[in-house]
Structure formats: structure tokens, C-alpha cells
Amino acid sequence: MNSQNYSYPLDPSWTTKEMEQVIAMFRAVEDAYEVGIDRSKVLDCYRTFKQVVPSKAEEKQLGREFEKSSGYVLYQVVKAAQESSDKKIKMVGREND
């Protein structure tokens, strides 16, 4: 569906399962911008993401790296999911456009 030409920021010390959980979060962010995504799915992905990346500083670092390569903003999607009462989230625009 998406024609990405970037890679996800991953920590080589994570287990395969942890990498899958982090990638699921980044894919949820992509979906929020590209096609829209259920708010509950974003929040579920974020919960499991925080189990792998409990540190706010590391979360911000990964978010910045992902934004730099993809143009998608992790923070904005999570914030929209937390604050919105809508069932579905659809972000508009990319930071790099």
C-alpha cells in the first residue's frame, strides 16, 4: 500500500517481538496519515510500544528519526488519538511535503 523508501528506527538489542511491536506503532502512524486508522488501534499500538520504549527521551528520539525519514509525526498521531473523541483518525499532510 505505501511506497516507503525509508527504514524504521530500531534498536538492535530488541527482541524480534519487540521490533514487531515498535514497527506496528510506526505502521499505525503511517496509516493515520495515508488512509486513516481506528483511534483504539493507535492507542493499543502505543501501549505495547511503551512496553518496549518506556523512556520518554527514547520515544522522542525514535519519533524524530522516523519523522526525518518518513515525514510522519509519531507524537501528533498519538496526541490526536488521545484527545479525539472520533472513532477514526486521519492526519492531514506530511512534515516533509
From TrEMBL:
Species: Limosilactobacillus albertensis
InterPro entries membership: BH2638-like_sf, UPF0223
UniProt name for this protein: UPF0223 protein H5S40_03860
Top-level taxon in the UniProt lineage: Bacteria
Coiled-coil ranges (or none): none
Family named by the database record: Belongs to the UPF0223 family.
